[in-house]
Design brief:
The structure holds two protein chains of two kinds. Chain A is of the alpha+beta class. Chain A is 27% helix and 20% strand. In chain A, the strands form three sheets. Chain A has a six-stranded antiparallel β-sheet. In chain B, strand 28 and strand 29 form a beta hairpin. About 2% of the residues of chain B have low confidence. The chains are: A alpha+beta, B mainly beta.
Chain lengths: 215, 464
């Protein structure tokens, strides 16, 4: 016992204690901060707000907020500072808690859908509400869920969508070339933005309509 | 007493350590936890959707429709209500003279554009058409947007099609496709030399080489953006790679006559604005030039340098004049409705409605010759429209909800001189309007399958 006390005595000096505590706290804080993700640091799990009305042009603005905020596989949370705060993520091998949505979560939030696939109501999800929703692109393509229905591609208008077995993008505006401007969360290297695409004429894509628009 | 002093030192050390640890990590920029700038003001958001009636047939109403996208008035701008927008259209007959200001009226038709104005009949009836631009506003916040962005300096043009050759395509017969005359590129997927990169994830793709072009000597250059290189193929064999600094996103590409490589990126160095990157034939980066609009459709080489079709202006904007790269403002001021041809004329393409395409060669704001392609099968995008001697080659995509093919048309003075269908061969995604190139009197198609990518050549067998 006396041997242990003798050995510890040099360490129980104020400067040594301070330094040790400083280094321990520094390491722990740095590790904690480095491991924090955009989602864990910023996002919430609040309940959505029912929206009495849901206009197509009113919902486009939800997508415009997501522009430039990046793409994140399995994600569904972003802010509105036009910076992707989780860039250079691995290619869809794991969900790393970065900023941005993927194609189906962006559609889910812009279309104001419910986590309950039997509920066709309108729900406003805040941009920092981390939610992906119950649908993958293939589900949208098949018209799964009460709010969703397959639809003729030729008749698709703003805020209808084109979905394949692995991707979905929403119509923003038809172009003079016959292609469409599509708002979509595309891929890590592409981000979330408005791009010109030819999904309308591509037979691997089908038309999808969110039912229940007010106008 | 000594123990209390030690505890105080320990607490101080812990506190300072936490502060220093967080600060160090934040300074290193490795925190993905909200260390970015604060959110921008939602009131700034304003954007537009507009399909300009570039080519009008007699009797067609000259209506201009716009959707304005901005937050709804009130405390919650994202509650699903439309914004309180308004605006004015400035219109004039032809391309000179004073503009007439006409306010937009609000309608319930969001499908074609909630905000609309009808161009006065006397202006719309001008043989030189009418030119216009619009200033759109969020009435609640004052945020505004002009489209085309140069306004009066480069307004949009809408021309009458009085004497277009009508080509009735009828119902497209799927399944009768022509085989290529030669396969000039064939590469399996991969990253080794002679292979081409493929990007595929659970929620996107597959995305293959996003563009290609054919050099004057017949060499084919393929933009392998996944592997950061341009691959060159000669006489069906891989002839080498040029490393280029590209983002890896879906880009368009065009080769200049001197071998300069122009790559049109979906986003630029600021991670927002698309940009044109210019590379020496060696692959050395020469310049990065942001384009004027938010979105692009295609890149082509014009007689004075690269031109980019952009949205929402729906104009072709020059990115350079010779060696001089243009600022975004200068690009917008040079906007025009058609792609510039070597003879200085423009080729205007307008896919009207569900199943009609209008093609016109114009000079001096007058239509010199034009075609209306009408079909009972829906028509998708016009992939290519390019002069070939005194003819125009058009590649368009008939489709249904389950089928699609490309239809190649050689248009002459009396209508279709030659036509055939080709398989869409579009297993992997490319840039939207980058699947075809015309070189000499041959048409080249960038195609793909699960096993790899290819470029096929179709000889058009027409005299130039």
């Amino acid at each position: 016992m006396s041997l242990l006390r003798r050995l510890l005595r040099p360490l129980l000096r104020p400067r040594v204690v301070f330094l040790a505590a400083f280094l321990v706290a520094l390491s722990l804080a740095a590790a904690k901060a480095a491991l924090a993700t955009f989602v864990s640091a910023n996002c919430n799990y609040n309940a959505p707000t029912p929206s009495p009305n849901m206009y197509r042009d009113g919902s486009v603005t939800v997508a415009l907020v997501a522009r430039y905020e990046g793409y994140h596989w399995g994600g569904g949370c972003w802010n509105d500072n036009d910076v992707d705060e989780g860039p250079n993520e691995p290619l869809q091998t794991s969900s790393t808690g970065g900023e941005g949505g993927d194609c189906s979560s962006l559609t889910f939030k812009v279309w104001r859908e419910s986590l309950n696939t039997g509920d066709g109501g309108h729900y406003q999800w805040g941009r920092l509400r981390n939610v992906h929703g119950p649908y993958a692109a293939a589900d949208f393509k098949a018209g799964v869920g009460v709010p969703n229905a397959t639809y003729s591609k030729a008749d698709a208008i703003v805020m209808d969508a084109f979905a394949s077995s692995s991707h979905i993008g929403m119509v923003y505006q038809r172009s003079t070339s016959g292609a469409d401007q599509i708002v979509e969360a595309k891929c890590e290297a592409c981000g979330t933005n408005i791009f010109t695409r030819t999904y309308r004429s591509d037979s691997s894509y089908g038309g999808v309509r969110r039912m229940g628009w007010t106008g | 007493m000594r123990a209390i002093r030690l505890i105080c030192w320990c607490v101080c050390g812990l506190a300072l350590g936490v502060v220093a640890g967080l600060g160090a990590v934040a300074a290193a920029g490795s925190v993905a936890s909200g260390s970015g700038p604060p959110d921008r003001e939602a009131a700034r958001i304003i954007d537009v959707g507009h399909l300009p009636p570039l080519l009008r047939v007699p009797g067609e109403a000259a209506s201009l429709r716009f959707n304005v996208f901005c937050p709804a008035p009130g405390a919650d701008g994202f509650d699903g209500e439309p914004c309180d927008a308004g605006g004015d259209v400035f219109v004039r007959a032809g391309t000179a003279g004073a503009f007439l200001k006409i306010p937009l009226r609000r309608t319930d038709d969001v499908a074609d554009g909630r905000y609309v104005t009808d161009v006065p009949a006397d202006l719309a009836a001008s043989p030189e058409g009418f030119s216009y631009y619009a200033v759109l506003r969020n009435e609640a916040t004052g945020a505004s947007l002009t489209v085309p962005s140069a306004g009066a300096a480069a307004p949009q043009l809408s021309l009458p099609l009085e004497h277009a050759v009508v080509v009735d395509l009828g119902a497209h017969r799927f399944g009768s496709t022509r085989h290529a005359d030669a396969r000039v590129v064939a590469a399996p997927w991969g990253s080794a030399p002679g292979r081409v990169g493929l990007l595929h994830g659970p929620t996107f793709g597959p995305i293959g080489p996003s563009a290609f072009d054919v050099a004057a000597n017949g060499d084919v250059a393929v933009l392998d953006q996944v592997n950061g290189r341009v691959e060159r193929w000669r006489a069906g064999r891989h002839a080498g790679d040029t490393t280029v600094d590209v983002s890896g996103g879906i880009a368009d590409m065009a080769l200049e006559a001197d071998g300069t490589i122009d790559v049109l990126e979906p986003t630029g160095s600021d991670a927002r604005t698309p940009e044109l990157r210019t590379f020496a034939p060696s692959g050395a980066l020469r310049s990065k030039t942001p384009i004027a609009d938010r979105t692009w459709s295609q890149l082509r080489e014009g007689p004075q340098g690269p031109e980019v079709q952009q949205e929402p202006s729906e104009q072709w904007l020059p990115a350079a004049r010779g060696q001089r790269l243009l600022s975004r403002t200068a690009q917008a001021a040079g906007g025009h409705p058609g792609r510039t041809l070597p003879n200085g004329r423009e080729l205007v393409v307008f896919r009207a409605g569900i199943s009609e395409a209008r093609i016109a060669e114009i000079a001096g704001a007058r239509v010199r010759r034009a075609w209306r392609l009408v079909s009972t099968t829906p028509l998708g995008e016009v992939q290519l429209a390019e002069p070939l001697g005194n003819r125009v080659v058009v590649v368009i995509r008939p489709y249904t909800d389950t089928q699609d093919e490309f239809l190649v048309l050689v248009l002459g003075a009396r209508g279709v001189e030659r036509s055939f269908s080709v398989d869409s061969a579009d297993w992997a995604e490319t840039a939207p309007l980058a699947r075809f190139r015309l070189a000499g009197s041959s048409l080249y198609q960038l195609g793909s399958a699960p096993s790899g990518m290819h470029v096929d050549r179709f000889d058009l067998e027409v005299n130039r």
